[in-house]
Structure of tRNA-specific 2-thiouridylase MnmA:
Amino acid sequence: MRIAVALSGGVDSSTAAYLLKEAGHDVFGIFLLLAQPAPEEEIQRLERICAHLSISLEVVDLRQQFASSVIEYFRRAYLKGKTPNPCVVCNRKIKFGLMLEAARARGAEKLATGHYVRLFREEKSGCFYIRKGRDLRKDQSYFLCLLDQNQLRDLTFPLGEYTKDEVIKIARQVGYFGLTSAESQEVCFIRGDYRELFPPDLASPGPIVTTDGRVVGRHRGLFNYTVGQRRGLGLRLGEPYYVIYLDVENNRLVVGPKAELYRHFFWVRRPHFVCPDQVSLPLRVRVRIRYRHTEALAWVERDGSDLKVVFDTPQRAVTPGQFAVFYRDDMVLGGGEIFLQ
């Protein structure tokens, strides 16, 4: 089988390519130009890795599409008082959208990545689903919640049954570990502070108020803050205060004690289900509200064109702009963007 492997220069994607080649597949590497500060250096490193693995390399320039679809989404979300998750959007539109199209155009039957997830095809329905990787410390299923059947059917994830330690061991044994780069950062287009993406004149200072309406300080522009934040508020109120929500309409930063961070329910806008024909609402699931959040039991019910998610136990810092992901056991059923009414 001819398989394109999305290469980043890291140990994970390189090991994925090695495993597929060892299994007898016709493998080639594909590298996306997105927002790398020194793409020539990245390409040179990848050429050395590909030479070591005896595979070819294709370079696809998606910088313009990445800027308009991902970076601009990121900026707009922050200016609307949200905390975006660009990786979820990039995976749907760029990595498993445009890159998958590029791989198919080059004769690939499958596209492989170094994600620590597993692909599962349900026998009864024929639907493909993402399952958590065996190494739960590295599981990346959360970031793939918006993929659909047209994408999933042409994907493969060679590292799903491996732990990170096992992958590193393979890389050392094969002899290319020294050629790979360090662990990639979570948001690839941010080199330091995300606030650097916003010109200083965009900042519109305003009042910091408590949930009962007391003015207790001044903020430096709402895009500088996120729900649950404690540091950097400049408050001296005798007890820790946290960002509860961002009141964009009135340019107010609303703060309160830790207890006020907990919410019993929220809504999901533009919900996506991996296999919609197999979903019947209301739905009993485990819900993850950010990447490092431990899933919590909840009911998901229809509310007009949106979904309402009601937790059994209130959860801390439900953040507009982040994604809620629905799990049945270790399987991703879908998800969507969080908002509060």
Notes: Residues 200 and 273 are 39 Å apart (CA to CA).
